[in-house]
Amino acid sequence: MKKYKAVFFDWDGTAVLSRTAPVDDIVPVMQPLLENGVKLAIISGTTIENIAGGHIGQYFSKKQLGNLYLGLGRGAYNYGFQEGKPYLFENRLPDTAGLLTIHRICFEIHAELKEKYDFDTDIVFSRPNYCKIDLMTENRRGDNLFMQEDELDLLREKMKEHGMKEGLSGLMEMAVRTGRSYHLEVIPTCDAKYLEVGISSKSDNVEAILGKMREECSIEAGECAFWGDEYVGIEEDIFGSDSFMYTEQTSDGDFFDVSEVRGKRPEGVRLVGGGVKSFLDFLAAQNEM
Fold first, then answer.
1. pLDDT digits (tens, 9 = 90+) for 183-194
2. In this structure, what DSSP letter does residue 241 have?
3. Which domain holds residue 205?
């Protein structure tokens, strides 16, 4: 196994089973890596309040925190740590007018789905630079917020029942078209249950953090590993949110998927399966190298 200088990883479903799960297993394998200068970057769609209950810093020393980064909010927030405290070194946050434009775009998508297809959705507006459009309002995930095994089939069947012949690709195109009608280039992603529409993605997180690592420590993408559980293809050439960690700047890195969901992955992503345990085993092995 290769020894990496930096590891980028999703949180829910990769490092922990859910955002409310205890961190008793992940913290002990992170600590020695951070102590020895390995850079770790948590890349998640959530906010800092939902990473270890908002108290991720309390589990590590000031020295260890100096090697920890948080890329959160689907590209919105990028944090490092100074003197044991998180600080925002880069963000992609719209002003109020810009955020309300995103809200209007998502409501228009919601209305078009209802009017044309009698397809019911709910919208979560309380995100920093995007909205979550719930495509399966009757399907509850509970604490496990990552994509479940049967959700793709359930969504495809539901869209078929409502006459949505273009499938998810048509839905993505609708989001982009609606955004452009408001003179805004939006980036839609989908994990089967939610269509997320905003102005950034995990691509922005990994590129911002890799850029900072390159500037401060001369770390290049080929020395990095990228772990997630949502790489799987939703439809042809439409992949899950973790696939956005693969960019032109990060393409020399190594990419791993711990998901058990069947389907195609982007070229270059290695399917290891095994869920959270596989990622914990990887970090433990890195500690022994």
1. 999 999 887 788
2. G
3. 6-92+201-288
Report phi then psi at 8, rounded to 5: -100, 135
| pLDDT at residue 263 in the model | 84
Residues 160 and 281 in one domain: no
Could you identify the residue written with the tokens 């109020």? Answer: 96
**Residue that is last in its domain, among 166, 198, 230:** 198
What digits encode the pLDDT tens for the residues 218-228? Answer: 999 999 999 99
Query: Given this model, what pLDDT does residue 148 score?
Result: 55
Q: Three-state SS across 39-93?
A: EEEEECCCCHHHCHHHCHHHHCCHHHHCCEEEEECCCCEEEEEECCEEEEEEECC
pLDDT, mean of residues 56-69 = 97
In a domain, 23, yes or no: yes
260 part of a folded domain: yes
145 has a pLDDT exceeding 70 = no
> Does residue 173 form part of some domain?
yes
Distance in angstroms (rounded) separating the CA atoms of residues 231 and 247? 13
Can you give the pLDDT at residue 33? 98
Q: Which long-range CB contacts under 8 A does 232-236 form with residues at least 24 apart?
A: 232/147, 232/152, 232/257, 232/259, 232/261, 232/262, 232/263, 232/264, 232/265, 233/263, 233/264, 233/265, 233/266, 234/152, 234/168, 234/190, 234/191, 234/192, 235/167, 235/168, 235/169, 236/169
Length reported for the chain: 289
pLDDT tens column, 24-43: 999 999 999 999 999 999 99
